[in-house]
Amino acid sequence: MKTFFSKLRLSQKLIIASLLMGLIPALFILLFTITMASDSLAKQSYDQLISVRSNKEAQITRYFDERRGDINVLLNTVETLRYNSFQSLRAAQQLKKLLLSNYLEKLKSDLTKLSLSPYNAAALKDFSQAFSKNKNKTKSASWKKHQQKYGQYFKQINKENGWYDLFLINNTGHIVYSDAQESDLGLSLAQLPL
Q1: Domain for residue 106, yes or no?
Q2: Is 91 a member of any domain?
């Protein structure tokens, strides 16, 4: 290198020396600026990532808070529906109980009226006598005569009350009259599978 530098003229040496004197600080300044810019960009990127992380964390927290709120709303809705269902069921049970009680009271009242009716008492007496005279048999001539006399009356009672059948039962427990006249007619209550 001495040979190269020694062959140069003084003006060239001064130009090279001034270039070197200007280039070396410029290179240091450039290196320093690049390092500062790189650090600044890295810090800016890091700050931006922290900001994005904070936003995402807030979004996730908000999302789970909303889902927790939705679950609470659903639980409250289910509890309200359950409570309302039980209230409706209780009301329906009370209504059924009341309706059944009223029906049984009406049935008891109607049956009491029927049992106190002299016409019904006479019908029971006539059917019982016809039954016992024919050795506990139904559908004899005397029984049929009483059936013609009382049959329409008992059919009307069945129709008015919405009953399927009406029985007259004597003191020994035999069914001496059945409006439907099915196989149970003439049987003893002790013999029937109830």
Answers
A1: no
A2: no
> Is residue 189 within 8 Å of 167, Cβ to Cβ?
no
- List the one residue out of 189, 178, 171 whose CA is nearest residue 128: 171
Contact between 168 and 176 (Cβ < 8 Å): yes
* Cα first-last separation, the chain: 134
Whether 82 is covered by a domain: the verdict is no
> Does one domain contain both 126 and 186?
yes
- Alpha-carbon gap, residue 107 to 117, rounded angstroms: 15
Total structural domains within the chain? 2
Q: Are residues 127 and 56 in the same domain?
A: no
Residue 52 in domain: yes
Domain span including residue 29: 9-67
* pTM to 2 decimal places: 0.50
**Selection from 107, 86, 194 nearest residue 157 by Cα:** 107
Q: What is the pLDDT along the chain (194 residues), one digit of tens a residue?
A: 567 777 788 888 888 888 888 888 889 999 999 999 999 999 999 999 999 999 999 999 999 999 999 999 999 999 999 999 999 999 999 999 999 999 899 888 877 877 778 888 888 888 888 888 877 777 788 888 888 888 888 888 888 888 888 888 888 888 888 888 888 788 888 877 65
